[in-house]
Amino acid sequence: MAPLPKVGEKRAKPLFGVTAAMINAASPNDFLATEFLEGYLLDEEGLRTFNSDGSLGAVAHRAYQAELGENPNIAATLANAEIGDPMPNIPEMGAFWSAMEPALQNIGSGRQAPQAALDAAAERMRTSIQ
């Protein structure tokens, strides 16, 4: 992991996702769910348990992020998120990711030069949303 490179003179802006939880207003135990979220899941111990499989990435909890930030991949993820934008929740993102997946695989494996792979992905995106 590393901060995204510049495209021309401008720094690329990554998209980032967020893990969230909601409580159904009709829940008969909404107070217990609130207590679980606020009293356990959002403290360091709860986050550490939730992250035991390494799935959290960078987190908003400052003390726990300081601990995670010792990992250079997590530090780079946070640096990218700080300059990025939240991923839009729109159907067109499906076209983006389905076009980008083979491009990223081809770039990573050396099967295609980055510019050629990204140009092909851009064409797939244009075709799929028209």
UniProtKB/TrEMBL annotation:
The keyword Transport applies. SUPFAM superfamilies: Periplasmic binding protein-like II. GO terms for molecular function: carbohydrate transmembrane transporter activity; maltose binding. Keywords: Periplasm, Signal, Sugar transport, Transport. InterPro entries: Maltose/Cyclodextrin-bd. The keyword Transport applies. GO terms for biological process: maltodextrin transmembrane transport; maltose transport. It comes from the Bacteria. It is found in: Periplasm. One of its GO terms (cellular component) is ATP-binding cassette (ABC) transporter complex, substrate-binding subunit-containing. Belongs to the bacterial solute-binding protein 1 family. Part of the ABC transporter complex MalEFGK involved in maltose/maltodextrin import. Binds maltose and higher maltodextrins. This is Maltodextrin-binding protein.
